[in-house]
Amino acid sequence: MSNRRPLQICYLAIGLAVMVILMGGWTRIMDAGLGCPDWPGCFGQMTAPISAAHIAEAQQNFAGVEVDVTKGWLEMIHRYMASTLGFLILLLAFIAWQRRKKSVYPVRLSFVLLILVICQGLFGMWTVTLKLLPVVVSGHLMGGLLTLTLLILLAGKLRQAAVPESPSSGRWVMRMAVMVLFMQMLLGGWTSANYAGWSCTHWLSCVEGQRTELDFRSGFSFSLDTSQSHQGGTMSQPARAAIQMTHRAGALVVTVVILLAGALALRSSTSRKPALVLFTLLIFQLCVGAANVVYGVPAWLAWIHHAGAVSLLLCLLWLKTRYESEVHYE
Predict the structure, then answer these.
(1) Helix/strand/coil for 45
(2) pLDDT in the model for residue 324
(3) Cβ atoms of residues 253 and 180 within 8 Å
(4) Dihedral sign, CA of 184, 187, 189, 191?
(5) How far is 302 from 198, CA to CA, in rounded Å?
(6) What is the pLDDT of residues 216-275, one digit of tens each?
(7) Cis previous bond, 40, omega within 30
(8) Catalytic choice (75, 213, 326, 330)
(9) Residue 68, CB half-sphere, CA atoms under 13 Å: how many?
(10) Among 31, 63, 239, 320, which one is least packed by beta carbons within 10 Å?
């Protein structure tokens, strides 16, 4: 039986996963993570309240909680999209179960994705019930990035384009580049979850002309305090500054590793195009990061930075696939 149908579903899931990650970033940037104080519904309903009667009912049932219709809809649209993605991954797992006796079908990877998306649902719930606890918010982002990465890997398996191990000296560079970028994106998520993007106002140093105290211990302590809401952040300025400066240092590491991976790929004809696109995205992302600091992290620019990171990951995975395929078939 052909892999065409599951491959089409997988492509649809990849596109939706990108949209979920981008929508999740926008929800986070707009402080809409608690736009619905309950889960899975919103103020006791399956849609955000719209009418005056529903808003009044929500205010009565959730006393002391602000009813912001716009934020509620942002959160619910994100949930609807994530639920649809979960259904597609469940469908892929069902197809894998039907074809479990075929040795070439990626059954195990399909079930790993199903387990991952179930965990993502739990993290989505805990994000609300634990009031934006930073370690949960960061874990939710990590799960989203892993879901996207594994879906791309599954698509490669379904195309029967998976590349077996080869002794290529460049393979480890590509893998390291993906891992380093992945860690930098998690660090960006930690920066956002703790509202540390506003802690440093100078694009190179933290505060121009001043020596800034950096509290790394507090900045990277994984608090499990759920007695208060973490919206707006609860860390001290030195702790947030430490997070922001670490994120900047990570950007330098990512730049070096991506330049190394791209330079390696430029030597092969099929990898040259993704390498050039990767360089362009890297320069753009660095400029947007600096602009966020200069202009005080406006919402639209913060979202472009988030989208740029996702684009970098997609392009790097594209480059890795192209490069390893060419190395294998040479």
Answers:
(1) strand
(2) 78
(3) yes
(4) negative
(5) 11
(6) 999 999 888 888 889 888 999 999 999 999 999 999 999 999 999 999 999 877 889 999
(7) yes
(8) 75
(9) 15
(10) 63
Sign of CA dihedral 287, 22, 76, 235: negative
Closest CA to 28 of 182, 194, 183: 194
213 is catalytic: no
202: left (phi over 0), alpha (psi -120 to 50) or beta: beta
Cβ contacts of 40 within 8 Å, gap of 6 or more = 46, 79, 125
pTM of the predicted protein model: 0.90
Lookup result for tokens 């992945």: 182
Residue given tokens 């197809």 in the structure block: 95
Q: Tell me the C-alpha distance between 96 and 107, whole Å.
A: 5
pLDDT tens for 81-106 read 999 999 999 999 999 999 988 878 99
Distances (CA, A) of 286 to 7, 168, 189: 34, 30, 16
